[in-house]
């Protein structure tokens, strides 16, 4: 039996950032983090693009909007202060027609409300910034969008917590035994407060505590292709997104190494770690998730059927490459290389309304806090979002007092 003040479930960017914030505020607290894998950031946190978003995609009243701009600044400062890899290249968002141009102006409006420095540029200015990019009349330039190496960032945070936070690997949460005790793979842990940052399994853990019963997580697979001409672009190039859709579509990303990747897709996956083939296959998850996806598909709730058709088409290499050609003046199909390691984005589904939840969601139990929906831009937002989570925990328990 281990006794701790706080137990955090999940060793991704959110779990580690919350542990860091808690330790900064309450250095005398005993904090224990359990991670089901043998290493940290094996899933979404380590497989995401590493782009630090500026924060102009999200409605001004959303938690995403609230935390992304500050999170970008805080994580940028962290990388610069600790000499971690960061490419501060900026981003161009392009439009294809008049309708997409209207969306571009809406993004600029959202950015202005959130006090994010953005610039509407004409084709002449665009050519100076990014000669490869192609747009309809105007484009949006975001100078504060950058990119980091997500695994390097997470490893550095974990190292900074050594001697301050107990981090246990290969410890999957099996069950809640009592109101204040959980059983993991090899241990029993007694706690004052549990914080659930388990990513694609956050809903399952929340259900152990009677929280978030109306929610389930639906996985979507993101595939990237390598583009072998590293001099092809200077900046990230994105197309104007469909604002009714939680995904940003296929785009060009300039990595910290200077290499380029193109993607991702957002193909519905059939189990929560459905990265490749039958790896990590889980029969129970398969039936549960396919059932939810079938309901969404046949009802076409939140345009799920249309989204599925479009994303499945991107699995065909020729169509995938076609999608990229509308964003650039010219492209060499022969420069597209191999598929890069895929990622899974777990999107929260509200089963009562059969709608995908667009914003972050945090809910509480009697002595537990559950981060149920921490999807993109959660990596960017982590150092800001963690303050919110810890604020919420502090409201629920007197962290500064001893047992």
UniProtKB/TrEMBL annotation:
Database matches in InterPro entries: FAD-dep_OxRdtase (IPR006076), FAD/NAD-bd_sf (IPR036188)
Lineage: superkingdom: Bacteria
UniProt keyword Oxidoreductase, yes or no: yes
Residue ranges constituting the FAD dependent oxidoreductase domain according to the UniProt record: 5-382
Keywords: FAD, Flavoprotein, Oxidoreductase
GO molecular function: (S)-2-hydroxyglutarate dehydrogenase activity
GO cellular component terms attached to this protein's record: cytoplasm
Keyword Oxidoreductase: yes
Gene3D superfamilies: D-Amino Acid Oxidase, subunit A, domain 2, FAD/NAD(P)-binding domain
Cofactor: FAD
Family statement: Belongs to the L2HGDH family.
Protein name as annotated: FAD-dependent oxidoreductase
Species whose genome carries this gene: Candidatus Brocadia carolinensis
